[in-house]
Write a structure and sequence with these properties.
By secondary structure, this protein is α/β, with parallel strands linked by helices. Keywords: Calmodulin-binding, FAD, Flavoprotein, FMN, Heme, Iron, Metal-binding, NADP, Oxidoreductase.
Length: 1329
C-alpha cells in the first residue's frame, strides 16, 4: 500500500485501504511573523502566464514575470494576518518524513462528491501505482483547513510544473517548482490564501475540464480560454463580464470554449465569495398556470423565488412566453444579490425546424445557443472560485432531451401529432413511434443549429471522438475518471465501441475539479431568511390529511371492484386492440388485468397467469381465428395447459368468450367455439353466449352489442358494486345515442375540393419557391421578436406562439394560417403540399413493379356478362422498394384497384355528387378535382375513428384526386348497408325512392334478397335511386362507404431462387348472385389484368406457421388443389435451393388435385422438381377429366396406392404435413388422414405443430330465391316496360331492383306511396317488418 502523507497513517491503517497520493514538503515547520511581514513587503518573482488569445505580440511581458504586489489587488484580497492565523491555525503537527510519491502526480484522489465507483472494480487502483480514493471526511478529520490548502496547493503546483515546465522554462524570470512552492507557503502563512497567476488559473481550469468524469467532450480541454475577471468587485461589473462572455461565445458561433473567473471564496469561510445564482447564464423561465406550466418546468421553483424575493414576474414588456430568458441574480462578495435582465439580442434562440418536416415549425420549438454553466464551482490548488461560468457547445442529444423529457418541455407527443403519427398503443403493440420521433427531432435540432451557424456536434461523432481520446489518455496519462451513464449517449448507445469498452471505467474526483456549487435556495435562506411557511404548512398538512382520506376511500372502492382478467390471443393485433377497448370500458368499475396468451412461454409466466385466474371473479377470453376456425398457433400451448392439468382452476369460474373471424370461411369464429366447448368440459360458468365478430360485416357493432350484454349480466351478478350498475346504465344510454352520433359524423367532416387548374398552379408556385429557397408568398420561417418591428409586436399566447404573422402584405393569425383560413386557394394548396403530415404515412407498404404476367389458364365462362376464367403467375420486381425479405409460405397483401369499373361509369357517378353547401349549383364535380378531408371532433379519438370509420381515417389530411380516391381507396362494388339506406332515405327527394330505402333499411329479408339479386352496389346508387342525384356529398361517402381493403395471397417463390422477385399465383374469382350474370372479384380481376411495368401496392405478412421446417431431413407431405399449389411451389423451390447446395433432404410427397390434366397447374415444374430430387413422388388427381371417374384429394389420400406409400411416414415422429386449398378441402383431407393413420396419431401431429394449413374460404353470395320465385321473376320480366334504362344492351341493376321489389311485400309499399294513403303505407311497413 502506497502511503504518501504521514498524518493519514494512523487513520488509514484501520480504514478500507484507501490512500492519498500527494506529497507536501512541510520540513520548515512554519514561518515566523517577522518572516511573514518580510514576505508581504518583498517583490518575489512569480511564474508567468502563457500568451493570452488577445496578445498581439504572442510573447510574455515583464509584468507577467513579476509578482504582483498585494497592494495592487482589491482590498478583499488582503487579509488580516492575525484573523487568518486565529481562524486557520491549529496545534502544530509533527513534521512527517519524506513520503513515498506517486510518479503520476494526480494528487489526492477523492471518492466524493460523486458516488464513488459507478462502474468498475473498487479493489482496483485508479493508476498503475495502485492509488485509491479516500473520502473527504477522512482527510478533514486529520488536517486543519490550512493543511488542506497547503496540500492541494502543492499538489497543483507540482502537477502544473510537470505538465507546463517544458513550455515555460524558456521564459526569462520563470520560477522553479521549489521556489514557487516556497512562495505559496509564505503567502498562506501570512494571509491565509494565495493568488494564482493567469497561466496557473487557466491551466487549472483546463485540467479541471480534463478531470470532469461526466463530460464526453474533453478532447478539447487544452483549448479552454480564460477570461480573467477577478478584479470585478461589483454586481454590475460581474453582469457586464457575463454579457461579454456570451458575446465572445456568439461571435465565434459557439465553436470555442471560454471560462470567466471572478473573485474566489475566502479559504475556511462558508458561503463566501461571488455568486451567480442561476444554473446557467441562459435559461428559460417557467410560469405556473394551474396544472400546466408555461416554459421550462425545471426552473419553476427558481422563477417563483424571483417573483417573491425580487419582484420579477416576467419580462419588462409584460409579454410572457415559453421562451423568456431568466434574469441573472448576481452577488459580488460582500454585497447584496441583485437582479439583471438579459437582453435577448445577446444570444438569439435557435428556431427548431427541418426542410423535410416543415410542420415542426408550427410547434414554435427553440433553444438557446450557448450552454454557459454557472452551477459548478471551480477548485484549483485549494482555492474555490464560486463564480466561474464556462461554456462549450451542445451535442444534439442534449437539446433533444431538454425538449422531450417529461420533466422538461415534454414535446414528444406534440411532435408525433404534428407529424401525423398514430401514438395510441394497444396490447401487443410496441410504442416504436417514440424512436421515430426522437430520430426526426434529433435531425431537426442538428439541422437548425447548423443553419443558424451555431456549433453543434452529433452524438455519434462525440462518443467516437471520446473513445479515441480516452484510449490515448490511458496510454499517456495512465488514468482518466469516467461516469459511464453520462458519457454514453442516450440514443444509439450500443452503436459504438465505447458502449462496452467503458463499462469498467471508474469515477472519482481529481483536483482541479468542477464541483457542484451552492444551491440558489441556500443563498436565498442566508440573505432573505426562511420563508414564513406556517400558513402554507397548515394548508399542506390539511391537503395531506385530505389525500389520506381520499386514498382510503379509493382503496375501499377498489376493494369492492371485481377483479377481471382478460386473456387475449391475437394473430395480427386486431383482437388485442379490441381487448384493450374492452378493458377500457370495464376499468371504471373493475380491476382489469391482461394476459397475452401468445406470449406465455415460461413456467413463471404460467404461474402468474394461474394466480390471476384464481383471484379473478370473471375471466374473459378474446381470441382471433387462424386458418379455418383454429386457435392462434402461438396460443395453443397456453390453452392446452390451461384446460389440461389446470382445468380444475376454471371449474365453477365465471367466464366469457369473444371471438373474431370472417364469415367467408366455413368455420366462422371456430376459435371462440373451441374455447367455449373447453370451458363447458371443465364445468366453467359461461355468463353470456360467446360473441362472434365478423370482419366482413363489421366488427365494431358486434363487439359493442356483446359488450353491452356482458356488462348488463355483470350488473345483475351477486356482489355487483354501484359502479357496475352505473356502467350498465351508461352503456345502454350510449347505445341509444350511438345512432344519432353516427349520423352526426358527417357534420364533423370538412371536405375541400380544389380544381385541377388550382392544384397545378400551386404546384408550379411551390416548385419555384423551393428553387428560390423560400416559401414565396407564405413564409414558413418562424417569426421571432427580432424579425418584427416593435410597433407590430403582438401578444404571445400561453404556449409561447406568436398570434400574428404577415403574408403577402396581409395580416393573418397563426391559427388561421395553420387552419388554412383567410388564404387564397393557391396559398392553401401550397401549405398542404409543404406539410409532411399531408403525405401518406402508411407503414410497411411497398410499391413494386410487375415484371411479367403469365396466364396459365384462360377460358371464357358463358352466361350473362361472359367473363374469362384466368389463373395467372405474376412476378413482381422488389428492387424499387428496397428488396424486402420474405420466406416461402408468407403472405403478400395486395391493395387492388377498381378495374371492373370503366372510366365513363366512374365519371357519371362523380357527376351526380354534390360538392356541398359552399359551392354553386352548377359547379359539378369531375375526376380531375382534388379533395382534402379534415375531421374535427375532440370527443372521438383517432383509434376510435379508425375502428368505426376506416375510410375516413385513411383519407384524413390527404390531398388526392377524385379519380385516385374512387379507383384505389373506395370499395365501389361493395353493397350499401341497411343503416346507410335509412340515412339515404332522408336525402331522397322522391317519395318512391324514400319509401324503398326505408323498407330496405328496416327489413333484413328484403335487403338480403336484393343483395343476392343485384348487389345494391355503390356504383349503381344513382341508377337505382335517381332522386339522390346532387343530394349525396363527399362527406357522406367518407362516413358511410367502406375502404378498398387489401387481399392476402400466398407467396409462391423462394427468394434464394428467384432473387429480387416475388411470385404470386392468382385465379380470377367468378361468382353469380343467383341469376345468369357472372361477376368477378375485385382484387383477382385487378391482378389478372396487370401488364408488365404496372405498379402494385403491397405489404408482406410473415406466416411462421406455414414455413419450412427447421430440420431438412424430416419427411414432408404436401396436399393442395388448384392455386393452393402457390405456397407449395415456394417450399419446393426452397428444397431445390438446398439440393443445389448438396444438403441432405428427407423425402417429400405431393398430392395435387386439379380439374383436368389439360388444366394442370405447373405440371412442367413438378416434373422438374422430381428430376432434381426436391420432390420424391407426386400423386395427381382430377375432378373433371373426360372419360375418367371424378377423384378429389381426399379420395386420393384414401386410395391404396397413397395409403401404402404415406402410411409409414405418417407414423414417424418428425413428419410434417402442409395443406393448402379451400377450407372445405382442408377439412376433408384431415378426415382422410385420420382414416389412413389413426385419430391418436393425427392428434399428436396437430399437437406437436407438424400440421400446417393455409386455407381460404370465399363463400358465394346467398341465392335466396327458390325455383318458384325465379319463375315468378321471369314472368315479371315479360311484362317489364322496355322503355326503362338499360346498360350496354343488358338489363340494368335498376331493373333487377324493380323485379325484386315486385316479388316482395314491398310492391304494396310502392303502391301505397303512389296513392299517398297513410293507412296503406303503415300496413306495408308492417308487412316489411
Amino acid at each position: 500500500m502506497k502511503i504518501s502523507f504521514n498524518p493519514f497513517k494512523k487513520k488509514l491503517s484501520t480504514s478500507r485501504g484507501t490512500s492519498s497520493c500527494s506529497s507536501v514538503d512541510d520540513a520548515t515547520g512554519g514561518v515566523s511573523a517577522k518572516s511573514e511581514d518580510h514576505i508581504i513587503a518583498s517583490n518575489v518573482r512569480r511564474p508567468v502566464r502563457r500568451p493570452s488569445v488577445g496578445d498581439a505580440t504572442g510573447g510574455v511581458s515583464a509584468a507577467d514575470v513579476r509578482r504582483p504586489s498585494l497592494a495592487s489587488l482589491p482590498s478583499s484580497f488582503v487579509f488580516d494576518a492575525a484573523e487568518s492565523a486565529a481562524r486557520l491555525r491549529r496545534p502544530a503537527l509533527t513534521s512527517p518524513p519524506e513520503p513515498e510519491k506517486c510518479p503520476f502526480l494526480h494528487g489526492t484522489v477523492y471518492a466524493d462528491p460523486y458516488p464513488g465507483y459507478v462502474h468498475g472494480n473498487p479493489k482496483r487502483g485508479i493508476c498503475p501505482n495502485g492509488c485509491r480514493p479516500v473520502m473527504t471526511s477522512e482527510v478533514t478529520e486529520l488536517e486543519s483547513p490550512r493543511d488542506v490548502l497547503l496540500r492541494e496547493a502543492i499538489e497543483f503546483v507540482k502537477l502544473y510544473y510537470h505538465e507546463r515546465s517544458d513550455e515555460m522554462q524558456g521564459i526569462d524570470g520563470f520560477l522553479s517548482c521549489e521556489e514557487r512552492i516556497s512562495e505559496i507557503k509564505e503567502s498562506i502563512y501570512a494571509t491565509g490564501t494565495y493568488v494564482h497567476t493567469f497561466d496557473e488559473l487557466q491551466h487549472g481550469a483546463q485540467v479541471a475540464w480534463r478531470n470532469a468524469p461526466k463530460c464526453s467532450n474533453r478532447k478539447y480541454w487544452q483549448q479552454l480560454k480564460l477570461l480573467d475577471q477577478r478584479m470585478a468587485t461589483s454586481n454590475q461589473e460581474i453582469f457586464d463580464s457575463c454579457i461579454k462572455h456570451l458575446s465572445k461565445a456568439m461571435s465565434c458561433g459557439v465553436s470555442e470554449a471560454y471560462i470567466t473567473v471572478f473573485q474566489p471564496a475566502t479559504p475556511g469561510k462558508v458561503l463566501d465569495g461571488s455568486y451567480i445564482w442561476n444554473d446557467q447564464l441562459l435559461q428559460y423561465a417557467a410560469y405556473g398556470n394551474g396544472d400546466a406550466v408555461i416554459g421550462d418546468p425545471k426552473n419553476l421553483r427558481f422563477t417563483e423565488m424571483l417573483k417573491e424575493r425580487f419582484g420579477w414576474d416576467g419580462p419588462s414588456d409584460g409579454i410572457k412566453g415559453a421562451h423568456d430568458y431568466l434574469p441573472l441574480i448576481i452577488q459580488a462578495r460582500g454585497q447584496k444579490p441583485e437582479l439583471f435582465e438579459l437582453p435577448r439580442e445577446c444570444a438569439r434562440p435557435v428556431q427548431i425546424h427541418h426542410p423535410r418536416y416543415p410542420e415542426l415549425s408550427s410547434l414554435n420549438m427553440q433553444w438557446y445557443p450557448v450552454p454557459a454553466v454557472c452551477a459548478l464551482d471551480l477548485t484549483v490548488g485549494g482555492i474555490l472560485y464560486t463564480a466561474a461560468p464556462f461554456n462549450g457547445w451542445y451535442a444534439n442529444t442534449e437539446v433533444l432531451r431538454d425538449l422531450t423529457d417529461e420533466c422538461r418541455f415534454n414535446m414528444l407527443i406534440p411532435v408525433a401529432e404534428a407529424l401525423g403519427m398514430e401514438i395510441d398503443t394497444k396490447p401487443g403493440e410496441a410504442p416504436l413511434w417514440k424512436d421515430e420521433v426522437m430520430h426526426i427531432l434529433s435531425s431537426a435540432v442538428y439541422h437548425s443549429f447548423k443553419s443558424a451557424k451555431i456549433a453543434m456536434i452529433d452524438h455519434h461523432t462525440l462518443i467516437d471522438m471520446f473513445w479515441t481520446w480516452y484510449r490515448e489518455e490511458m496510454k499517456t496519462r495512465k488514468y482518466c475518471p469516467v461516469n459511464w451513464k453520462w458519457v454514453i449517449p442516450p440514443m444509439s448507445s450500443s452503436t459504438n465501441r465505447a458502449y462496452l469498452g467503458l463499462n469498467k471505467a471508474q469515477e472519482y474526483t481529481l483536483k482541479p475539479a468542477y464541483l457542484l456549487g451552492t444551491s440558489p435556495f441556500q443563498l436565498e435562506i442566508k440573505y432573505f431568511g426562511k420563508r414564513d411557511t406556517s400558513l402554507a404548512m397548515k394548508k399542506l398538512l390539511h391537503c395531506i390529511w385530505l389525500a389520506i382520506v381520499f386514498k382510503r376511500c379509493i382503496n375501499r372502492m377498489r376493494g369492492r371492484k371485481q377483479p377481471v382478467l382478460i386473456a387475449y390471443a391475437s394473430v395480427t393485433g386486431n383482437a388485442a386492440r379490441y381487448a384493450s377497448d374492452l378493458g377500457a370500458i370495464l376499468r371504471s368499475s373493475c380491476n382489469v388485468s391482461f394476459v397475452d396468451a401468445c406470449g406465455v412461454n415460461a413456467a413463471e409466466d404460467m404461474l402468474k397467469v394461474l394466480h390471476l385466474i384464481h383471484a379473478a371473479t370473471l375471466v374473459i377470453f378474446v381470441s382471433s381465428t387462424q386458418g379455418n376456425g383454429e386457435l392462434p398457433s402461438l396460443a395453443r400451448k397456453f390453452f392446452s395447459m390451461l384446460f389440461g392439468k389446470h382445468g380444475n382452476l376454471l371449474s365453477g369460474k365465471r367466464c366469457a368468450v369473444l371471438g373474431f373471424g370472417s364469415s367467408s370461411y366455413p368455420i366462422f369464429c371456430g376459435a371462440a367455439s373451441q374455447i367455449s366447448t373447453m370451458l363447458a368440459k371443465v364445468n366453467a360458468n359461461e355468463v353470456v353466449p360467446h360473441g362472434k365478430c365478423d370482419s366482413v360485416k363489421g366488427e365494431a357493432l358486434s363487439f359493442y352489442d356483446w359488450t353491452t350484454s356482458l356488462v348488463a349480466k355483470m350488473a345483475t351478478m351477486r356482489g355487483a358494486n354501484p359502479l357496475m350498475l352505473k356502467l350498465s346504465s351508461d352503456i345502454k344510454a350510449s347505445n341509444a345515442s350511438s345512432l344519432v352520433r353516427a349520423r352526426n359524423m358527417v357534420n364533423c367532416v370538412k371536405v375541400e375540393v380544389f380544381t385541377a387548374k388550382e392544384v397545378e398552379t400551386a404546384a408550379a408556385m411551390s416548385y419555384m419557391t423551393q428553387r428560390r429557397g423560400s416559401m414565396g408568398t407564405i413564409s414558413r420561417r418562424r417569426i421571432s421578436n427580432d424579425s418584427i418591428d416593435s410597433s407590430e409586436r403582438s401578444t404571445i399566447d400561453s404556449s409561447g406562439k406568436r398570434s400574428t404573422i404577415y403574408s403577402s402584405g396581409r395580416r393573418i393569425t397563426v391559427e388561421s394560417f395553420l387552419n388554412g383560413e383567410n388564404l387564397t386557394p393557391h396559398e392553401r394548396i401550397m401549405r398542404i403540399m409543404s406539410s409532411s403530415s399531408m403525405r401518406t404515412t402508411k407503414k410497411d407498404i411497398f410499391e413494386g413493379q410487375v415484371n411479367s404476367r403469365e396466364d396459365i389458364i384462360s377460358r371464357v365462362v358463358n352466361g350473362e356478362g361472359s367473363v374469362t376464367r384466368k389463373t395467372s403467375l405474376i412476378k413482381i420486381d422488389l428492387k424499387m422498394c428496397g428488396d424486402p425479405p420474405y420466406q416461402p409460405g408468407d403472405h403478400v397483401r395486395i391493395f387492388p384497384r377498381n378495374n371492373a369499373i370503366d372510366l365513363d361509369q366512374l365519371q357519371m357517378f362523380v357527376l351526380h355528387l354534390s360538392r356541398g353547401e359552399a359551392f354553386e349549383v352548377g359547379d359539378d364535380c369531375c375526376l380531375d378535382d382534388h379533395i382534402l378531408a379534415s375531421f374535427k371532433n375532440e370527443s372521438i379519438s383517432r383509434s376510435e375513428l379508425a375502428a368505426s370509420w376506416p375510410l375516413l381515417s385513411k383519407c384524413i389530411h390527404e390531398l388526392m384526386p377524385l379519380e385516385y380516391f374512387f379507383d384505389n381507396q373506395v370499395a365501389l362494388e361493395s353493397p350499401i348497408s341497411m343503416q346507410t339506406c335509412l340515412d339515404l332515405s332522408q336525402l331522397a327527394t322522391s317519395d318512391k325512392d324514400r319509401a324503398v330505402l326505408t323498407g330496405l333499411g328496416n327489413n333484413s329479408t328484403v335487403y338480403e334478397d336484393l343483395i343476392s339479386m343485384c348487389g345494391l352496389k355503390w356504383i349503381d346508387l344513382f341508377k337505382i335511386f335517381p332522386s339522390l342525384s346532387k343530394q349525396v356529398t363527399i362527406n357522406f361517402l367518407l362516413c358511410n362507404m367502406k375502404p378498398n381493403h387489401a387481399r392476402s395471397y400466398s407467396i409462391s417463390s423462394c427468394k434464394e431462387v428467384v432473387g429480387s422477385e416475388l411470385h404470386i399465383v392468382v385465379g380470377r374469382h367468378i361468382y353469380s348472385r343467383g341469376g345468369s350474370k357472372k361477376e368477378v372479384g375485385v382484387c383477382s380481376n385487378f391482378l389478372t389484368q396487370v401488364e408488365p411495368g404496372d405498379e402494385i401496392s403491397f405489404n408482406i405478412e410473415s406466416t411462421p406457421s406455414f414455413q419450412y421446417p427447421l430440420d431438412p431431413l424430416c419427411p414432408i407431405i404436401f396436399i393442395c388443389t388448384g392455386t393452393g399449389f402457390a405456397p407449395i411451389r415456394g417450399l419446393l423451390q426452397k428444397r431445390s435451393y438446398f439440393q443445389s447446395r448438396s444438403e441432405k433432404l428427407g423425402p417429400s410427397f405431393l398430392i395435387f388435385g386439379s380439374r383436368s390434366s389439360s388444366e394442370g397447374l405447373f405440371h412442367d415444374e413438378i416434373v422438374e422438381f422430381q428430376k432434381q430430387g426436391a420432390l420424391t413422388e407426386a400423386f395427381m388427381c382430377y375432378s373433371r377429366e373426360i372419360g375418367v371417374k371424378k377423384e378429389y384429394t381426399q379420395d386420393k389420400l384414401r386410395s391404396i396406392e397413397v395409403r401404402d406409400r404415406l402410411g409409414p411416414f405418417l407414423a414417424e415422429p418428425n413428419t410434417h404435413i402442409f395443406i393448402c386449398g379451400s377450407a372445405n378441402m382442408a377439412e376433408s383431407c384431415k378426415v382422410s388422414l385420420c382414416e389412413i393413420s389413426s385419430q391418436d396419431l393425427f392428434d399428436s401431429i396437430v399437437a406437436s405443430g407438424r400440421l400446417h394449413c393455409d386455407v381460404f374460404g370465399a363463400l358465394l353470395p346467398k341465392a335466396r330465391y327458390n325455383s318458384t320465385r325465379r319463375l315468378s321473376i321471369q314472368s315479371h320480366q315479360k311484362t317489364f316496360n322496355p322503355k326503362e334504362e338499360h346498360m350496354g344492351g343488358k338489363i340494368s341493376s335498376t331493373n333487377s331492383l324493380r323485379r325484386v321489389m315486385n316479388t316482395t311485400p314491398a310492391n304494396s309499399l310502392r303502391r301505397a306511396v303512389k296513392t299517398s294513403q297513410p293507412s296503406a303505407l303503415s300496413r306495408s311497413l308492417f308487412e316489411l317488418k
